[in-house]
Structures
1.
Amino acid sequence: MASTAQIGIVVIGRNEGERFLACLKSLAGFDGPLVYVDSGSTDGSVAAARDAGASVVELDMARPFTAARARNAGLAVLVDQGKPEFVQFIDGDCQLVPGWLETASDYLATHENAVAVAGRLRECHPEKSVFNRLCDAEWKQPAGQVDAIGGIAMMRLDKVQAVGGFCETLVAGEEPELCLRLRREGGEIWRLEQDMALHDANMTRFSQWWRRSRRAGYAYAEGCAMHGAGPERHYVAELGRILFWAGLLPVVILALALIGGPWARYALALYPLQVLRLVPRGGAERAFFLTLGKFPEMLGVLEYWVAGQLVGARKRYEK
């Protein structure tokens, strides 16, 4: 790996096991500051990180955990260690692709308005389950200037500091929210065509997918509450779709069923029609789960509206 002295890396994780060892292996040879932020692992991750030469932060788990809080803790260490120009964020269940650090840092160095850049994130084992395939399809996004990127990305550290870092109270969706604030300050967010990292979701059960979708609904509701009234209309469209497909339409179907007649069946037919409408965008499998996913997302929305400020609601989403 080439010299990357101007880059620092922040890894966050909890009990990732072999996935974390693979993550560390992908960083072997990196000669810049490396920080690992652990959120209560009991599988030896802390020791493995120290053996790999990382500075380790062990979060106080008496406080509610969020990935944003973990990333900010890593940023604080990088600042204390000399404040590199760029910071690469990566989760402990991911592996960086060789050459990505050089590609991303070169792009930021030659595009002064760019404040954050990401590449292609791929799922390690899409063949393992339908849910892994859904993740891989989700990661596949067009290259170019975008509104937001995910948590695996390289950013200008000083620009992230200038807007106050990640919002630590957000259960999820902290990356798009940060990108929104960066864009408000004139920064550009870019996604490149180059491969960036491999992600190992290891999502093999329906319950895992349901929980992840519910968490997304929570994030949409929370993000919309924060910035939905702004000019970006942050998550307004996403929340509107959830409320229609899993809120209003089921109520209408139930009301029509109580009245009697064929109208309830006609309204119910809107769901398969929606699946058919989405098929050209990603195939039948993804279309089906995008439609079904509105129901766990609705549960997440309701959870935010009812109990969004309670620690108990947040802790259910800890990794």
2.
Amino acid sequence: MPVFTRFIILLAFVFVSSFVFAEQKIAFVNQAKLLQKAPQAEYARTKLQKEFASRDKALVSLQKKIKKAADKLQKNAAVLSVEELNKLKRKVTLLSRDLERDKAAFKEDLSIRQNEELIKLQKSVLKSIQTVAEKEKYDLILSEGIVYASQRSDITDKILAQLKKQYKSGQ
């Protein structure tokens, strides 16, 4: 096949492919922004704070109790009998163990609940993206790994508006 014919075929291919891509409606969504600013995210944060507030207060109370016992131990070490001193040391040690165990359980439970709420939020974000994509007839919506997206192709605010609408209808 002569070089000229190859060139014409290549040129035709480039022209046809650019014509096909010109008709595509493509957009970009900043999911990190959505996960941060969606009303569902604020609701989840508030819900988790309320859910774990009593356990957090209990941990703070236990820390104060340990500090009080440790201060008493330090202050009265010289005047306490050996038996009382050992009893107070044992109390501080046991309370410290309880605190560490409770802290670890608290962190684990909080982490599990945060992940559960994040999954719910991600589903809401995906649903909103799909709703906007279908409504406005987008062919492709990109998210992660984008090096550049013009303001014109960024539909994050549209998705955020859809999330707010979805949130209001679900409450």
3.
Amino acid sequence: MNQLNIYLSNLEHNYKFLQRNLNSETNLIAVVKASAYGSALPAIAKRLEKLGVNIFAVAYSNEGKTLRKIGVKSRIMVFYPQAYGLDDIIDNKLEACLYSVNLLKEFREKLILKKLKNFPIHIKYNTGLNRLGFNPSYCDWIVNQLKDDTFALKSIYSHLAVSQAKKEMKLNKHQIESFLQLREKHLKISKITPKFHLLNSSGLFNFPEYQFDAVRCGIALHGFANRPEWDKKLKPVAELISSISQIHIVKKGEYVGYDFGWKVSKETKIATIPLGHADGICRRLGNHKGTVSINGKIAPIVGNVCMDMFMVDVTKISCDEGDVVYVFGKENSISDLALTADTISYELLTAIGPRVKRVIYE
């Protein structure tokens, strides 16, 4: 029994909490990239649309295409369009977020060839994350590119690099100031008045005064906001459970797992769990770093995580083969698990493989 339980009631709680913290004129863009952060895209997207979401965001065009196939009618932004996916953006009535000169020119040529006008786009500026986006110095060039009717500019945005860090951090201040300057210049030199947005999930918690016209929330919808005090206001949507396949006794001096992963110092009761790194349980969680919960007790992961299973020490736990194992969820926080693996909740959530059954609970 390996399954990822998806609680839509918790998703609704998180959505409504975020909405209560928005200004009346601020829209919530629901980010559902990476199969809704590794959960269950159809169920998540349909519930959010039912709750009132009118703009979704994905990473690539094929994800937007999937949303259309499952019946999503709302607007869909594509954050990182690639040249090969521009036709999908057009055919599925998606909205391209343009971030480079070459991409903008290529998309323009394609729209002209297809005799399409006023196609919805968004402009992404790089204010300090240094991943994707136009340099702010291109502002005048971009405004000039938008003078004809090829594009319909919907929004201008940027992305904070350390939105969960202290507000006074130098990079945060620089990015916000840069974006404010860009906003002022666009409004001054252009006849177009688009929407503006800067904040992601943790940005909304940290900088509510800079909500502008929209915020982009992804991980917060799933119950996390990158700080423990913020996480407490949300509810985790996903819960990963498994069961004990076998229990056996390992004698003092013997080893557990591949490559002599753990040498047993005394007679130990070991339980084997049928999940491994092929299912998203990363090897970094092995060797007493990660833990699971069994019958209300914490059991450390011992030895190296295998491809299809891992072992835990249950010497002090009363348990039997077939008992439920909580890998993360209400009984074992994924945030704590991520800390032990020197990673973040995003990685653990999106790594859950297709062998794990998704079970939806209303």
